[in-house]
């Protein structure tokens, strides 16, 4: 049986259409009809070589770029697009509050994300689906929605070129605005855009996302990823990112160590949180962390398990959440009360930023309601254990190196430097989660 759900698709581009588009648009897009002679800014980063725990954004000695240049570039370009009126609504006018309670869930009233759109069917029982040129993809966005090209430099120094040619054959990665933003600076990272990759993680693309988090150097700038079946609605490889100047509840959750890989990456369970998952941190270098997490994601994809990923702490910590909400929704196992909220629990909601579409839900937001929704997303403890074993087996058989022998479990609270004041607020227990 093919499982499908109906939901209002998120509009990420002003040129997005529900129907197939004809070629030859003449509207300054990123396709062959409009690309000749086009130029976009280029940010070329220096590949990191330090251990993850010591990393900071790197610049060449003779460069005039400050260590926070990418951070300033993203915000400056994003604000310029806001002044030009390219967004569907003013996200700065959206009401936001921290929900009282020990977890500090964040609620936002964002009524503009689903207006004037009709529900569309999405298949949710197949994580890997082929790219479909007839559907909307990011080559159809307008060039004015693209902020800059982003990639590794050829000479291992940092460079910024304000007007760089677009080399289609090299298929650059680009950063574009999301015209339906959740928060300030909401952007999309689209790896190797002209290769038209489907929404699936690979090692190269995930390392690119970690580099972006590291280069920004701002702990309040996080990147997220949603697989198909876990509320990605566009089957063209992309990550999302935005700024939120407060800790996400998931960043304050305690963890229990499972093991450490031969490359120094610690893998742990997330504890006392409504969505069960894994957290990865450390490593002898950024690539070690990236390879371990991307191999875990590839394992989930190949086993048809939907998942969400949050990249936090400037690329030093990564949370992985296998999930089952869309499947339960398609099978009619989610209560009408939860469905009526129209909340799609993707990476941001799972991380504790609840994007609400109805004022009644915003005004009645409580820790209990947030917990109840997110508990429906989570795998059971037994199922997560099975998934964890799948991941460890996959990693032990690949070239990233064998997983080290299991060490005694250790409970700890992992927290980035900017979030040290939050540790005390997450101690304690919570009612058991709903098993799947």
Automatic annotation (TrEMBL):
Any idea which GO molecular function terms this record carries?
Answer: GDP-L-galactose phosphorylase activity; guanyl-nucleotide exchange factor activity; hydrolase activity; nucleotide binding
Annotated keywords: Cytoplasm, Guanine-nucleotide releasing factor, Hydrolase, Nucleotide-binding, Nucleotidyltransferase, Transferase
Region span, Disordered: 409-436
Q: What class of enzyme is it?
A: transferase
Q: Name one Pfam family in it.
A: GDPGP1_N
Instruction: Tell me where in or outside the cell this protein is found.
Output: Cytoplasm
**Does Disulfide bond show up as a keyword for this record?**
no
Its EC number(s): 2.7.7.69
The main place the protein resides is cytoplasm
UniProt-listed InterPro entries? GDPGP, GDPGP1_C, GDPGP1_N
**In this protein, which residues make up the domain named GDPGP1-like C-terminal?**
249-396
Bias (Basic and acidic residues) = 418-427
Q: Which residues form the GDPGP1-like N-terminal domain?
A: 70-242
- GO cellular component terms given for this protein: cytoplasm
Q: What is this protein called?
A: Phosphate metabolism transcription protein
User: Which family does the entry's similarity section mention?
Assistant: Belongs to the GDPGP1 family.
């Amino acid at each position: 049986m093919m499982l499908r759900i109906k939901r209002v698709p998120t509009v990420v581009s002003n040129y997005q259409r529900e129907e197939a588009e004809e070629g030859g648009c003449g509207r300054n897009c990123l396709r062959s009809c409009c690309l000749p002679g086009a130029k976009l800014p280029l940010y070329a980063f220096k590949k990191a070589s330090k251990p993850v725990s010591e990393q900071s954004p790197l610049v060449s000695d003779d460069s005039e770029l400050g260590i926070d240049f990418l951070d300033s570039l993203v915000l400056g370009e994003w604000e310029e697009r806001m002044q030009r009126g390219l967004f569907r609504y003013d996200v700065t006018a959206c009401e936001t509050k921290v929900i009282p309670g020990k977890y500090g869930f964040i609620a936002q009233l964002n009524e503009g994300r689903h207006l004037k759109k009709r529900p569309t069917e999405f298949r949710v029982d197949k994580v890997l689906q082929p790219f479909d040129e007839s559907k909307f993809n990011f080559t159809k966005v307008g060039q004015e929605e693209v902020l800059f090209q982003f990639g590794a430099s050829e000479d291992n120094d940092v460079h910024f070129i304000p007007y760089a040619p677009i080399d289609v054959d090299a298929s650059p990665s680009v950063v574009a605005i999301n015209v339906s933003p959740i928060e300030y600076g909401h952007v999309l990272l689209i790896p190797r855009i002209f290769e038209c990759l489907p929404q699936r993680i690979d090692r190269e693309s995930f390392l690119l996302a970690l580099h972006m988090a590291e280069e920004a150097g701002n702990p309040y700038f996080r990147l997220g990823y949603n697989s198909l079946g876990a509320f990605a609605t566009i089957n063209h490889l992309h990550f999302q990112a935005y700024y939120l100047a407060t800790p996400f509840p998931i960043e304050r959750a305690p963890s229990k160590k499972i093991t450490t890989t031969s490359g120094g990456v610690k893998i742990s369970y997330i504890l006392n949180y409504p969505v069960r998952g894994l957290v990865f941190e450390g490593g002898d270098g950024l690539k070690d962390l990236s390879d371990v997490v991307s191999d875990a994601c590839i394992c989930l994809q190949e086993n048809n398990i939907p998942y969400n990923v949050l990249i936090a702490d400037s690329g030093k910590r990564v949370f992985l959440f296998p999930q089952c909400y869309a499947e339960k929704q398609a099978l009619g196992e989610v209560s009408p009360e939860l469905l009526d909220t129209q909340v799609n629990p993707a990476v941001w909601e799972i991380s504790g930023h609840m994007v609400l579409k109805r004022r009644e839900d915003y005004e009645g937001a409580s820790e209990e309601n947030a917990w109840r929704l997110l508990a429906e997303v989570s795998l059971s403890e037994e199922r997560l254990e099975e998934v964890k074993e799948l991941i460890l087996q996959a990693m032990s058989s690949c070239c990233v190196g064998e997983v080290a022998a299991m060490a005694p479990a250790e409970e700890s609270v992992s927290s980035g430097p900017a979030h040290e004041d939050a540790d005390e607020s997450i101690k304690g227990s919570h009612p058991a989660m709903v098993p799947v």
